[in-house]
């Protein structure tokens, strides 16, 4: 069964600024101000308690122990696999700042075998794909990831892939639109 295509506008519109609670207002201010408010934040802000807890979890992953470049490769690969264009748009520039080349960005959109990836990148990207495809890691894949990242890093990788599957599901199901310039 294939998912229904994304059609129509957002199922929930972003909250207007007049309805933002203190937490959302502070977050938006820290992220560049109301003119740069992200639709994902102002939409999920319709459930303030869940939004606050989700932001905390996501923030912990973004400030975790995985190297930033590796983290962004995983996020972008998950965005590709989940067809979450919004997520790609918001992480592409961060990935560039952290050293992901234009060639690598383009390669993330194709089968991994189409490019000669660095060893560490390939181990993590293959694990990302495997978790997407099987919702698990085979023992051999686990050993490769664990050998590279250790206990905490492996847990963080699994949680990062899961988090961005959740984000993709929310973005696509709620039809959250990319902000217009």
Key features of this structure:
single chain, 181 residues, mainly alpha, AhpD-like, 8 helices, 64% helix, globular
Q: TL;DR?
A:
The chain has eight helices and no strands.
CATH topology of the largest domain: AhpD-like
Helix content: 55-70%
Strand-residue proportion: under 5%
> Taking Cα atoms only, what radius of gyration do you get, to the nearest Å?
17 Å
Number of helices: 8
What is the N-to-C succession of helices and strands? Answer: HHHHHHHH
Distance N to C terminus: 36 Å
The CATH architecture term of the largest domain is Up-down Bundle
CATH class of the largest domain: Mainly Alpha
Q: Report the principal-axis shape.
A: globular
Sheet bearing the most strands, described? none
Number of domains: 2
Low-confidence stretches: none
Q: What is the tally of beta strands?
A: 0
Task: Name the average pLDDT.
Answer: 95
Category by helix and strand content: mainly alpha
Q: Which superfamily, in CATH terms, is the homologous superfamily of the largest domain?
A: AhpD-like
Blueprint of the fold:
Layout: H1 22-30, H2 39-44, H3 48-62, H4 68-82, H5 85-97, H6 102-107, H7 119-134, H8 139-174
Helix pairs in contact: 4-5, 4-7, 4-8, 7-8
């Amino acid at each position: 069964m294939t998912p229904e295509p994304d059609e129509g506008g957002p199922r929930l519109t972003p909250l207007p600024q007049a309805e933002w609670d203190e937490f959302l207002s502070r977050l938006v201010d820290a992220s560049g101000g109301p003119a740069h408010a992200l639709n994902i934040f102002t939409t999920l802000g319709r459930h303030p308690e869940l939004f606050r807890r989700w932001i905390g979890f996501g923030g912990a992953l973004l400030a975790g122990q995985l190297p930033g470049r590796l983290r962004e490769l995983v996020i972008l690969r998950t965005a590709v696999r989940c067809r979450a264009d919004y997520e790609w748009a918001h992480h592409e520039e961060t990935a560039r700042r952290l050293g992901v080349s234009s060639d690598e960005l383009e390669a993330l959109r194709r089968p991994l075998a189409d490019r000669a990836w660095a060893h560490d990148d390939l181990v993590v990207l293959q694990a990302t794909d495997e978790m997407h495809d099987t919702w698990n890691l085979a023992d051999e894949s686990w050993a490769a990831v664990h050998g590279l990242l250790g206990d905490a890093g492996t847990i963080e990788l699994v949680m990062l892939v899961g988090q961005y599957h959740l984000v993709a599901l929310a973005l696509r199901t709620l039809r959250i639109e990319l902000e217009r310039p």
